[in-house]
Amino acid sequence: MVLLLIMSSISGCFGSEEEGSTEVSLFDSLCSEQGGTISNTTWYHFANATDATMSPGVGNLTGGNTPVCSIGTYYGIGFSTFEPTIGITSQDNLYMSSWGNGVAGSTAIVQCSGLIGMTSISEYSCQDVYSALLPVPNSNDPYVYVDPWTDRIMKFDMHALLGMTVEWSDNEGSTWIGPTPATGWSVQDHQTIASSPYNALFHETTWVFCVNGNYPYPVCSTSNDGGATWGPEVPGAPTDCNSGGLTGHMVGSNNGNFYRGNPGCDGEGYSIFRSSNGGLTWTEHPLPTGTTGTADTWNFEEAQVYPDEDDNVHAMWMGSDNMPYYSYSRDEGESWSDPLMIAPPAGLNGTGFPAIAAGDSGMVAFAYIGDSGGDNWNGYIGMITDAFSSMPLITTVQVNGMDDPLDTTADCGYNRCGGFGDFIDILVDAHGRPWFGLSHNLVDQGIYGTISIGPSLRAGVPLQAMPIGGPSTL
Prior knowledge:
By secondary structure, this protein is mainly beta.
């Protein structure tokens, strides 16, 4: 019996070592088709920049947490951009706003077709599809949004502080309807627009826009007929709120809710604001920023939010250390998970311009720019495929090469910076691939950052490999 106990104890020790070495060999052989070498612009890590490849036995790297060989890349659109917002239709066309490059100097809506799922760089092309008979003058804040439920492309132009107009296309940009005025009593600036399947009277979806009304909180307006007419502007927060009017991107959820991020009503931390009645009233749901603090930068208001397909809500913000943080809610923002610092073990000096998108349940992508040293600002996409794991694996890719920074301006990530303007954008397509709307400021061209290979953010939909892009596509 003594011998049996001893052998059992030894066996347990050997088993533990084997489990640890299995995880190391998992990373060692992860990219076998690429010669078994992980790209120097790819990191597998846990929260707080803990390198997963150097942490055998830490975390459960199975099921949805299994690492996948990943490589970041980008593709140029052939047009400059400013504050790039993006959209994706069910026809797999990508759209990006382009300031001043449309007909008669209007805002262009650049459609990139053939890009999603391509097998050769030559298969994709980008063109301006905004061709109104009487083009709306160029917008100070260009904005494009695609309704995920109807494919309606909404072009949302802000004209200095004078007002806004909306135009839309239901045929991939071939023809446009409008413009219609979307202007109330407030100052118009820093707009955002979204839709949801909340009950509308004369359209399949309800539309809401919010603006910085030069008021203690954002103001919002609702359309029940797909953008043809708009209701009065109403407070985008509780009426005793003092959050300031600047707001992150708004987004609609499958359950009809609308969400957007702002500074908290008490002026401390960040909050997610939710409307469950088509943008008529909003409730505040504070994020867990007590331990992270908030960034003291130009785009300080940019707490970002996105619901996944099961209506779980995912949020991202920059902490006082200028690093990105993430938390999720499974009850529509009533409570939040403990925050995770999601930057990779890449020695980043700081980050800025947060953006977030989600796919299927618990699958989420983060986007931001970061300084890798010497004011070399790069684009990063972090992906989690099992957010509800006790220790989720984060796969982070840098979309540009080490010798190909997107900007070299001092403190770019903390200020209005080139084509980034005030914000950037990210979405997940139907196949599970993230698309990051960016500007390559050194060549003044809009780009889509993404992954050539990597994990899918749609359950049961394996991601197909795409050719590496980069400078050759500019």
